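On clarity, I found the account of how folds are encoded harder to follow than it need be. An entry of this sort, consisting of the sequence and the corresponding backbone structure tokens, reads as follows:
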Amino acid sequence: MSTERRAPLDRHRVADTALRLLNEVGLDGLTLRAIAKELDVKAPALYWHFKDKQALLDEMASEMYRRMAAGAEPDPADTWQERLLKTNRGLRAALLGYRDGAKVFSGTRFTGIDHAPALEANLRLLTDSGFTLAQAVDAGRTANSFTIGFVVEEQGMRPFRGEGEGEVQERMRRVDVGERARRMAGFPLAAAAGELLFDDYDRQFEEGLAVVIAGIGARYGTGGPADRHTG
């Protein structure tokens, strides 16, 4: 009989294992049974820590945020535009680090208050820059929603490391720009748009985020000279 002692089963260990398994099987394959097998426990043992899969997803999203925020301190010299840029660039990078990361993150609820310091700092910067609290919340939510939605689409089209050859080939087939252009030959602008819709996601994201931030400034009249930072 093995005398090796395993680490005690707790919320952190379960969430950490789930995030590792997520990269192997994706969100559709991430079941409580699969996680329990990975942990070498019976599935009912997980219910001591999470009442259902949604509760586990909440903890996984919270852990993703903790890792993203670890060691990251907001620069007090930031303009509000720079802060929104940095925050959402960091969020996209973090979500891309996990297979189906944006799907896991969206619609979840943080299980602690680890996000409170950064949220407080961002809202303080926005309100000090002339936003009302309601406008500051709307601005942050709009940029955040753009980022999460963008990454959901991006991850739906781009292969993730570790995916099987069949999965990669299926994704490549879905974004065959040449085939798309041939099928839409009667609609020349729509056909040509394929090269812009399914290529250079970094450029797409930066341009979209710049448009969102410029729109926030235009909507609330808090743009001004600092708009140069959105380029």
